[in-house]
Amino acid sequence: MAARALPRPEFLAAQALARDAPTGTRKVALAHRRARADGVLLLADCALEQLPAGVFDLLATVEPGELALSCCSSGELTKLDVSHNALRELGEDDLWDALPSLATLRAHDNQLARPIDGAIGRLRALELLDVSGNALTGELMPAGLAALAALRELDVSRNALIGLGPDLPPGLEVLRASRNRLVALPAALGACAALRVLDASHNELTHVELALGALVQLELSHNRLGTGACRLDGCASLETVDVRDNALRALPSLPRASRIVRLFASFNRIERLDGGGGGGAPLADCLGAPLTELLLNDNRLAELPATLAPSLVGVQRLSLANNALHDLPHELGYLPRLAHVALDGNPLRQIRRPLLASCEALKKHLRSRGPPPGGGADAYLPAEDDEGGDGGDGGGGGSGGGTSARARACLLYTSPSPRDG
Protein backbone atom coordinates (compact mmCIF):
# COMPACT_ATOMS: atom_id res chain seq x y z
CA MET A 1 0.00 0.00 0.00
CA ALA A 2 1.35 3.39 -0.94
CA ALA A 3 2.30 5.68 1.92
CA ARG A 4 -0.21 8.47 2.65
CA ALA A 5 1.12 11.90 1.68
CA LEU A 6 1.67 14.22 4.63
CA PRO A 7 0.13 17.70 4.55
CA ARG A 8 2.43 20.39 3.28
CA PRO A 9 3.93 22.72 5.94
CA GLU A 10 2.15 25.75 4.48
CA PHE A 11 -1.21 23.95 4.83
CA LEU A 12 -0.51 23.10 8.46
CA ALA A 13 0.33 26.75 9.06
CA ALA A 14 -2.92 27.81 7.42
CA GLN A 15 -4.84 25.41 9.66
CA ALA A 16 -3.18 26.90 12.72
CA LEU A 17 -4.09 30.41 11.59
CA ALA A 18 -7.68 29.31 10.98
CA ARG A 19 -7.92 27.93 14.53
CA ASP A 20 -6.74 31.23 15.94
CA ALA A 21 -8.82 33.38 13.55
CA PRO A 22 -12.00 35.18 14.67
CA THR A 23 -15.21 33.19 14.53
CA GLY A 24 -16.44 35.04 11.42
CA THR A 25 -13.25 34.22 9.52
CA ARG A 26 -13.52 30.55 10.42
CA LYS A 27 -17.13 30.51 9.22
CA VAL A 28 -16.09 32.03 5.90
CA ALA A 29 -13.38 29.40 5.44
CA LEU A 30 -15.85 26.61 6.15
CA ALA A 31 -18.43 28.17 3.81
CA HIS A 32 -15.82 28.28 1.02
CA ARG A 33 -15.11 24.60 1.40
CA ARG A 34 -18.79 23.68 1.24
CA ALA A 35 -19.39 25.97 -1.73
CA ARG A 36 -16.69 24.23 -3.70
CA ALA A 37 -18.74 21.06 -3.34
CA ASP A 38 -22.27 22.24 -4.18
CA GLY A 39 -22.12 25.77 -5.60
CA VAL A 40 -23.97 27.26 -2.60
CA LEU A 41 -22.06 29.89 -0.61
CA LEU A 42 -23.57 30.39 2.85
CA LEU A 43 -22.11 33.41 4.67
CA ALA A 44 -25.10 34.21 6.87
CA ASP A 45 -24.42 35.30 10.45
CA CYS A 46 -20.66 35.60 10.01
CA ALA A 47 -20.33 39.04 11.66
CA LEU A 48 -19.28 40.53 8.31
CA GLU A 49 -19.06 44.31 7.99
CA GLN A 50 -17.91 44.03 4.39
CA LEU A 51 -17.41 41.27 1.88
CA PRO A 52 -13.84 39.94 2.15
CA ALA A 53 -11.52 40.42 -0.81
CA GLY A 54 -11.64 37.42 -3.11
CA VAL A 55 -14.78 36.13 -1.41
CA PHE A 56 -16.01 34.60 -4.67
CA ASP A 57 -12.66 33.17 -5.79
CA LEU A 58 -13.31 29.65 -4.57
CA LEU A 59 -10.50 27.89 -6.44
CA ALA A 60 -7.83 30.15 -4.95
CA THR A 61 -8.36 28.46 -1.57
CA VAL A 62 -8.48 24.82 -2.64
CA GLU A 63 -6.97 22.78 0.17
CA PRO A 64 -4.51 19.87 -0.19
CA GLY A 65 -6.40 16.65 -0.76
CA GLU A 66 -9.30 18.33 -2.61
CA LEU A 67 -9.72 17.37 -6.23
CA ALA A 68 -9.64 20.66 -8.12
CA LEU A 69 -11.44 19.15 -11.09
CA SER A 70 -14.50 18.38 -8.94
CA CYS A 71 -14.60 21.80 -7.27
CA CYS A 72 -17.13 24.49 -8.20
CA SER A 73 -15.63 27.73 -9.41
CA SER A 74 -17.13 31.15 -8.73
CA GLY A 75 -18.75 31.03 -12.15
CA GLU A 76 -20.75 28.00 -10.99
CA LEU A 77 -22.14 29.55 -7.80
CA THR A 78 -25.92 29.36 -7.90
CA LYS A 79 -26.87 30.56 -4.41
CA LEU A 80 -25.38 33.20 -2.12
CA ASP A 81 -26.60 33.99 1.39
CA VAL A 82 -25.01 36.93 3.23
CA SER A 83 -27.99 37.62 5.49
CA HIS A 84 -27.80 38.53 9.19
CA ASN A 85 -24.51 40.39 9.02
CA ALA A 86 -23.60 44.07 9.36
CA LEU A 87 -23.00 44.83 5.69
CA ARG A 88 -23.49 48.45 4.65
CA GLU A 89 -22.88 47.70 0.99
CA LEU A 90 -22.35 44.67 -1.20
CA GLY A 91 -18.94 45.60 -2.53
CA GLU A 92 -17.78 47.15 -5.78
CA ASP A 93 -19.78 46.56 -8.92
CA ASP A 94 -17.07 44.56 -10.68
CA LEU A 95 -17.09 42.06 -7.78
CA TRP A 96 -20.29 40.58 -9.18
CA ASP A 97 -19.00 40.00 -12.70
CA ALA A 98 -17.68 36.60 -11.60
CA LEU A 99 -21.18 35.22 -10.83
CA PRO A 100 -22.91 34.58 -14.17
CA SER A 101 -24.83 31.57 -12.79
CA LEU A 102 -26.08 33.13 -9.55
CA ALA A 103 -29.82 32.41 -9.21
CA THR A 104 -30.48 33.25 -5.54
CA LEU A 105 -29.14 36.20 -3.56
CA ARG A 106 -30.22 36.63 0.04
CA ALA A 107 -28.90 39.75 1.75
CA HIS A 108 -31.67 40.39 4.25
CA ASP A 109 -31.15 41.73 7.78
CA ASN A 110 -28.04 43.80 7.15
CA GLN A 111 -27.50 47.56 7.11
CA LEU A 112 -27.60 48.09 3.35
CA ALA A 113 -28.37 51.63 2.30
CA ARG A 114 -28.41 50.69 -1.37
CA PRO A 115 -28.60 47.43 -3.31
CA ILE A 116 -25.97 46.41 -5.84
CA ASP A 117 -26.76 49.32 -8.15
CA GLY A 118 -25.38 49.01 -11.67
CA ALA A 119 -23.91 45.55 -11.23
CA ILE A 120 -27.24 43.93 -10.50
CA GLY A 121 -28.12 44.07 -14.17
CA ARG A 122 -25.24 41.71 -14.89
CA LEU A 123 -26.75 38.92 -12.79
CA ARG A 124 -28.81 37.69 -15.72
CA ALA A 125 -29.53 34.30 -14.11
CA LEU A 126 -30.88 35.82 -10.88
CA GLU A 127 -34.32 34.47 -9.94
CA LEU A 128 -34.65 35.53 -6.28
CA LEU A 129 -33.40 38.73 -4.63
CA ASP A 130 -34.06 39.30 -0.92
CA VAL A 131 -32.86 42.61 0.56
CA SER A 132 -35.51 42.84 3.28
CA GLY A 133 -34.70 44.18 6.73
CA ASN A 134 -32.11 46.73 5.64
CA ALA A 135 -31.84 50.54 5.55
CA LEU A 136 -33.03 51.18 1.99
CA THR A 137 -34.67 54.61 1.63
CA GLY A 138 -36.24 56.74 -1.08
CA GLU A 139 -37.05 55.05 -4.39
CA LEU A 140 -35.92 51.54 -5.21
CA MET A 141 -34.00 52.39 -8.38
CA PRO A 142 -30.98 50.12 -8.78
CA ALA A 143 -29.83 50.56 -12.35
CA GLY A 144 -30.43 47.40 -14.34
CA LEU A 145 -33.12 45.92 -12.09
CA ALA A 146 -35.66 45.91 -14.91
CA ALA A 147 -33.17 44.03 -17.11
CA LEU A 148 -33.33 40.95 -14.88
CA ALA A 149 -35.58 38.94 -17.14
CA ALA A 150 -35.15 35.80 -15.01
CA LEU A 151 -36.08 37.46 -11.68
CA ARG A 152 -39.20 35.83 -10.24
CA GLU A 153 -39.19 36.91 -6.58
CA LEU A 154 -38.22 40.27 -5.08
CA ASP A 155 -38.38 41.00 -1.35
CA VAL A 156 -37.76 44.57 -0.17
CA SER A 157 -39.84 44.34 3.02
CA ARG A 158 -38.85 46.04 6.28
CA ASN A 159 -37.02 49.02 4.80
CA ALA A 160 -37.93 52.70 4.54
CA LEU A 161 -38.75 52.93 0.83
CA ILE A 162 -41.25 55.53 -0.35
CA GLY A 163 -41.48 54.09 -3.86
CA LEU A 164 -40.58 51.06 -5.92
CA GLY A 165 -39.16 53.03 -8.84
CA PRO A 166 -40.35 53.42 -12.41
CA ASP A 167 -39.20 49.99 -13.62
CA LEU A 168 -39.66 46.47 -12.34
CA PRO A 169 -38.62 43.13 -13.85
CA PRO A 170 -41.51 42.12 -16.12
CA GLY A 171 -41.27 38.43 -15.15
CA LEU A 172 -41.89 38.98 -11.42
CA GLU A 173 -44.20 36.45 -9.81
CA VAL A 174 -43.78 37.43 -6.13
CA LEU A 175 -43.25 40.97 -4.84
CA ARG A 176 -42.99 41.58 -1.11
CA ALA A 177 -42.77 45.22 -0.05
CA SER A 178 -44.44 45.27 3.36
CA ARG A 179 -43.39 47.53 6.22
CA ASN A 180 -42.03 50.42 4.17
CA ARG A 181 -43.36 53.94 3.62
CA LEU A 182 -44.91 53.45 0.21
CA VAL A 183 -47.49 56.08 -0.69
CA ALA A 184 -48.41 54.56 -4.06
CA LEU A 185 -47.80 51.46 -6.13
CA PRO A 186 -45.87 52.07 -9.36
CA ALA A 187 -47.49 52.02 -12.78
CA ALA A 188 -44.76 49.54 -13.75
CA LEU A 189 -46.70 46.85 -11.87
CA GLY A 190 -49.09 46.77 -14.80
CA ALA A 191 -46.34 45.24 -16.93
CA CYS A 192 -45.82 42.36 -14.47
CA ALA A 193 -48.33 40.07 -16.14
CA ALA A 194 -47.11 36.98 -14.25
CA LEU A 195 -47.36 38.52 -10.75
CA ARG A 196 -49.13 36.05 -8.42
CA VAL A 197 -48.35 37.43 -4.94
CA LEU A 198 -48.22 41.09 -3.93
CA ASP A 199 -47.64 42.08 -0.31
CA ALA A 200 -47.76 45.82 0.27
CA SER A 201 -49.12 45.70 3.81
CA HIS A 202 -47.99 48.07 6.56
CA ASN A 203 -47.35 51.06 4.30
CA GLU A 204 -49.00 54.44 3.70
CA LEU A 205 -51.04 53.68 0.59
CA THR A 206 -54.15 55.81 0.14
CA HIS A 207 -55.39 54.35 -3.15
CA VAL A 208 -54.85 51.23 -5.22
CA GLU A 209 -55.95 50.46 -8.78
CA LEU A 210 -54.72 47.12 -10.10
CA ALA A 211 -55.40 45.11 -13.24
CA LEU A 212 -53.26 41.99 -12.86
CA GLY A 213 -54.90 38.93 -14.35
CA ALA A 214 -52.57 36.40 -12.71
CA LEU A 215 -52.66 37.89 -9.18
CA VAL A 216 -53.80 35.30 -6.63
CA GLN A 217 -52.81 36.79 -3.25
CA LEU A 218 -53.06 40.49 -2.35
CA GLU A 219 -52.00 41.84 1.04
CA LEU A 220 -52.92 45.50 1.66
CA SER A 221 -53.63 45.54 5.40
CA HIS A 222 -52.45 48.34 7.67
CA ASN A 223 -52.44 51.15 5.12
CA ARG A 224 -54.50 54.31 4.69
CA LEU A 225 -56.88 53.08 2.02
CA GLY A 226 -60.18 54.87 1.94
CA THR A 227 -59.35 58.41 0.88
CA GLY A 228 -58.89 57.33 -2.75
CA ALA A 229 -60.13 54.64 -5.09
CA CYS A 230 -59.56 50.96 -4.34
CA ARG A 231 -60.21 49.05 -7.54
CA LEU A 232 -59.37 45.39 -7.93
CA ASP A 233 -61.93 44.44 -10.58
CA GLY A 234 -59.15 43.82 -13.10
CA CYS A 235 -57.69 40.99 -10.99
CA ALA A 236 -59.79 38.04 -12.10
CA SER A 237 -57.67 35.32 -10.44
CA LEU A 238 -57.71 36.70 -6.88
CA GLU A 239 -58.15 34.10 -4.14
CA THR A 240 -56.99 36.01 -1.04
CA VAL A 241 -57.69 39.70 -0.44
CA ASP A 242 -56.58 41.28 2.85
CA VAL A 243 -57.51 44.93 3.39
CA ARG A 244 -57.71 44.89 7.18
CA ASP A 245 -56.85 47.94 9.26
CA ASN A 246 -57.52 50.70 6.74
CA ALA A 247 -60.08 53.48 6.52
CA LEU A 248 -62.37 51.93 3.89
CA ARG A 249 -66.02 52.99 3.87
CA ALA A 250 -66.86 50.32 1.31
CA LEU A 251 -65.25 47.13 0.14
CA PRO A 252 -62.88 47.44 -2.82
CA SER A 253 -64.41 46.91 -6.25
CA LEU A 254 -63.96 43.24 -7.05
CA PRO A 255 -64.12 41.20 -10.28
CA ARG A 256 -67.47 39.69 -11.20
CA ALA A 257 -67.84 35.97 -10.46
CA SER A 258 -64.51 36.07 -8.67
CA ARG A 259 -62.50 33.12 -7.37
CA ILE A 260 -62.00 34.76 -3.98
CA VAL A 261 -61.65 32.22 -1.18
CA ARG A 262 -60.65 34.55 1.67
CA LEU A 263 -61.78 38.16 2.04
CA PHE A 264 -60.48 39.98 5.12
CA ALA A 265 -61.80 43.51 5.67
CA SER A 266 -61.86 43.87 9.46
CA PHE A 267 -61.06 47.12 11.26
CA ASN A 268 -62.32 49.60 8.68
CA ARG A 269 -65.26 52.00 8.50
CA ILE A 270 -67.48 49.98 6.18
CA GLU A 271 -71.14 50.92 6.54
CA ARG A 272 -72.86 49.06 3.68
CA LEU A 273 -72.42 45.84 1.70
CA ASP A 274 -75.02 46.34 -1.02
CA GLY A 275 -72.58 47.53 -3.67
CA GLY A 276 -68.98 47.31 -4.74
CA GLY A 277 -66.59 50.00 -3.63
CA GLY A 278 -65.36 52.54 -6.13
CA GLY A 279 -68.33 52.09 -8.44
CA GLY A 280 -67.68 48.38 -9.06
CA ALA A 281 -70.19 45.57 -9.57
CA PRO A 282 -72.62 44.72 -6.74
CA LEU A 283 -70.97 42.56 -4.11
CA ALA A 284 -73.47 39.74 -4.67
CA ASP A 285 -72.24 39.49 -8.27
CA CYS A 286 -68.60 39.32 -7.19
CA LEU A 287 -68.57 36.71 -4.42
CA GLY A 288 -69.62 33.12 -4.88
CA ALA A 289 -69.17 29.45 -4.00
CA PRO A 290 -65.35 29.57 -3.66
CA LEU A 291 -65.61 31.97 -0.68
CA THR A 292 -64.92 30.18 2.63
CA GLU A 293 -63.82 33.01 4.95
CA LEU A 294 -65.35 36.47 5.25
CA LEU A 295 -64.06 38.73 8.04
CA LEU A 296 -65.98 41.98 8.48
CA ASN A 297 -65.64 42.51 12.22
CA ASP A 298 -64.96 45.95 13.71
CA ASN A 299 -66.71 48.03 11.07
CA ARG A 300 -69.92 50.10 11.08
CA LEU A 301 -72.34 47.69 9.44
CA ALA A 302 -75.98 48.24 10.38
CA GLU A 303 -77.36 45.57 8.06
CA LEU A 304 -76.35 42.33 6.36
CA PRO A 305 -78.28 42.32 3.05
CA ALA A 306 -80.43 39.25 2.43
CA THR A 307 -79.41 39.38 -1.23
CA LEU A 308 -75.87 38.48 -0.18
CA ALA A 309 -76.85 35.01 1.11
CA PRO A 310 -76.48 33.18 -2.25
CA SER A 311 -72.91 34.51 -2.43
CA LEU A 312 -72.12 33.01 0.99
CA VAL A 313 -73.23 29.46 0.27
CA GLY A 314 -69.67 28.12 0.71
CA VAL A 315 -68.70 30.26 3.71
CA GLN A 316 -67.41 28.37 6.73
CA ARG A 317 -66.18 31.26 8.86
CA LEU A 318 -68.05 34.56 9.15
CA SER A 319 -66.97 37.35 11.48
CA LEU A 320 -69.42 40.22 12.05
CA ALA A 321 -68.39 41.14 15.57
CA ASN A 322 -68.31 44.74 16.78
CA ASN A 323 -70.61 46.29 14.21
CA ALA A 324 -74.05 47.93 14.54
CA LEU A 325 -76.26 45.01 13.51
CA HIS A 326 -79.77 44.97 15.02
CA ASP A 327 -80.87 41.80 13.24
CA LEU A 328 -79.74 39.10 10.81
CA PRO A 329 -81.46 37.98 7.59
CA HIS A 330 -83.21 34.64 7.96
CA GLU A 331 -81.43 33.46 4.79
CA LEU A 332 -78.25 33.15 6.84
CA GLY A 333 -79.74 30.12 8.58
CA TYR A 334 -79.77 28.14 5.35
CA LEU A 335 -76.01 28.29 4.70
CA PRO A 336 -74.94 24.62 4.83
CA ARG A 337 -71.22 25.05 5.52
CA LEU A 338 -71.34 27.90 7.98
CA ALA A 339 -69.54 26.60 11.09
CA HIS A 340 -68.02 29.62 12.82
CA VAL A 341 -69.83 32.90 13.42
CA ALA A 342 -68.68 35.89 15.49
CA LEU A 343 -71.49 38.27 16.50
CA ASP A 344 -70.41 39.70 19.83
CA GLY A 345 -70.42 43.47 20.15
CA ASN A 346 -73.64 43.99 18.11
CA PRO A 347 -76.97 45.36 19.44
CA LEU A 348 -78.96 42.33 18.23
CA ARG A 349 -82.40 43.22 19.59
CA GLN A 350 -84.39 40.89 17.33
CA ILE A 351 -82.64 37.71 18.43
CA ARG A 352 -82.94 36.34 21.95
CA ARG A 353 -79.62 35.98 23.71
CA PRO A 354 -80.02 32.23 24.53
CA LEU A 355 -80.12 31.54 20.77
CA LEU A 356 -76.55 32.77 20.54
CA ALA A 357 -75.32 29.86 22.62
CA SER A 358 -74.58 27.81 19.50
CA CYS A 359 -74.53 28.16 15.77
CA GLU A 360 -77.03 25.30 15.54
CA ALA A 361 -79.58 27.18 17.61
CA LEU A 362 -79.05 30.42 15.74
CA LYS A 363 -79.34 28.90 12.27
CA LYS A 364 -82.39 26.85 13.27
CA HIS A 365 -84.10 29.97 14.59
CA LEU A 366 -83.28 31.95 11.46
CA ARG A 367 -84.70 29.18 9.23
CA SER A 368 -87.94 29.29 11.20
CA ARG A 369 -88.41 32.92 10.24
CA GLY A 370 -88.61 32.52 6.47
CA PRO A 371 -88.04 30.40 3.37
CA PRO A 372 -84.64 29.61 1.83
CA PRO A 373 -83.09 31.96 -0.72
CA GLY A 374 -84.64 31.72 -4.16
CA GLY A 375 -83.01 29.51 -6.79
CA GLY A 376 -80.67 26.57 -6.30
CA ALA A 377 -82.57 25.09 -3.34
CA ASP A 378 -80.29 22.06 -3.28
CA ALA A 379 -77.41 24.29 -2.21
CA TYR A 380 -79.07 25.19 1.12
CA LEU A 381 -80.24 23.48 4.28
CA PRO A 382 -83.91 22.42 4.19
CA ALA A 383 -86.57 24.57 5.79
CA GLU A 384 -87.63 23.77 9.35
CA ASP A 385 -90.87 22.00 8.41
CA ASP A 386 -88.92 19.79 5.94
CA GLU A 387 -86.33 18.54 8.44
CA GLY A 388 -88.43 16.07 10.40
CA GLY A 389 -88.53 15.71 14.18
CA ASP A 390 -90.33 18.01 16.57
CA GLY A 391 -88.16 21.05 15.82
CA GLY A 392 -87.01 21.26 19.41
CA ASP A 393 -83.33 20.55 19.06
CA GLY A 394 -82.69 19.89 15.37
CA GLY A 395 -84.38 16.49 14.97
CA GLY A 396 -83.27 12.97 15.61
CA GLY A 397 -83.15 10.01 13.26
CA GLY A 398 -84.55 9.50 9.77
CA SER A 399 -83.58 11.54 6.75
CA GLY A 400 -82.96 14.57 8.91
CA GLY A 401 -80.14 12.91 10.83
CA GLY A 402 -77.40 13.97 8.43
CA THR A 403 -78.47 17.58 8.52
CA SER A 404 -78.63 17.62 12.31
CA ALA A 405 -75.20 16.04 12.63
CA ARG A 406 -73.77 18.70 10.35
CA ALA A 407 -75.53 21.43 12.29
CA ARG A 408 -74.25 20.09 15.62
CA ALA A 409 -70.71 20.60 14.33
CA CYS A 410 -71.36 24.32 14.10
CA LEU A 411 -70.02 26.61 16.82
CA LEU A 412 -70.86 30.24 17.50
CA TYR A 413 -67.88 32.32 18.63
CA THR A 414 -68.92 35.00 21.09
CA SER A 415 -65.49 36.00 22.38
CA PRO A 416 -63.84 39.17 21.03
CA SER A 417 -62.06 38.66 17.71
CA PRO A 418 -58.28 39.01 17.69
CA ARG A 419 -56.98 42.11 15.99
CA ASP A 420 -55.93 40.09 12.95
CA GLY A 421 -59.52 38.97 12.40
Structural write-up:
The protein is α/β, with parallel strands linked by helices and 421 residues long. Helix content is 12%, strand content 13%. The chain contains five helices and 18 strands. The chain has helices at 9-20, 23-38, 283-286, 359-368, 401-408; strands at residues 40-42, 79-81, 104-106, 128-130, 137-139, 153-155, 160-163, 174-176, 197-199, 208-209, 217-219, 230-231, 240-242, 262-264, 293-295, 317-319, 340-342, 411-413. Strands 1-2-3-4-6-8-9-11-13-14-15-16-17-18 form a 14-stranded parallel beta sheet. Strands 5-7 form a two-stranded parallel sheet. The longest helix is centred in the N-terminal third of the chain and has 16 residues, at 23-38. It is elongated. The model is unreliable at 1-21 and 386-418 (pLDDT under 50).
Brief overview, please?
The chain is an alpha/beta fold and 421 residues long. It contains five helices and 18 strands.
